Amino acid sequence: MSSLLILILIVAFFAWYLSYSATRLDRLHHRVETSWANLDSLLQRRAAIAIEIARSEISDPAASLLLTFAAHQAREASIKDRSQAESGLSGALGILLEGADEISGAHEKALVLELQELNSKIKMAIAIHVDAVNRTTMVRAKPIIRLFRLAGNAPEPVVYEFEDDVL
């Protein structure tokens, strides 16, 4: 009788552990999705500001064309082309903002300041997203998670190449 009770306790503990692990993994996947949604909204805002800068008096016509093209590519890129498009926009903004100290005009200065603040928010959002992806990947790699397929049909979280760029 006591061996049956011990067996029931062991099975109950194992079932609880599997349930706990599945719930934790689900929360981690939700964190990855949330962090990506936040990062994506910041990147979309950055592209919008880039278009505003391209239409302002900050850039010459050639730089304006380049910046507009890069911003539209970043906004419309598919997931597989997103890294290249965001890196292109980062490069175009970097080239344009090298001479940001010489900008005159209140509207233009406000745009540059907003872009600089947004870039710092993007860096933070990238750090949060990369951390969420790393933690989720680490938990998904555990043998018990793989053996019992606790990840279900959730896609493997990824870190995009542009997240390694310095914005």
Name a few traits of the molecule.
167 residues, 5 helices, elongated, mainly alpha
Short overview:
The chain has 167 residues and is an all-alpha fold. It contains five helices and no strands.
Characterise the protein shown here.
With 167 residues, this protein is mainly α. It has one domain (33-164). The chain is 75% helix and 0% strand. It has helices at 2-55, 61-76, 82-96, 106-140, 143-147. Helix 1 (2-55) runs antiparallel to helix 2 (61-76) and helix 2 runs antiparallel to helix 3. The longest helix has 54 residues, at 2-55. It is elongated, with a radius of gyration of 23 Å.
- % residues in beta strands: under 5%
Mean pLDDT: 92
Q: Output the helix-strand order.
A: HHHHH
State the helicity in percent bands: over 70%
Distance between the termini: 66 Å
Return Rg in Å: 23 Å
Could you say how many structural domains there are in total?
1
Low-confidence stretches: none
What's the total count of β strands?
A: 0
The general outline is elongated
In DSSP terms (H or I, runs of 4 or more residues), the helix count works out at 5
Largest sheet: none
Class by SSE composition? mainly alpha
Task: Lay out the secondary structure.
Blueprint: H1 2-55, H2 61-76, H3 82-96, H4 106-140, H5 143-147
Helix pairs in contact: 1-2, 1-4, 2-3
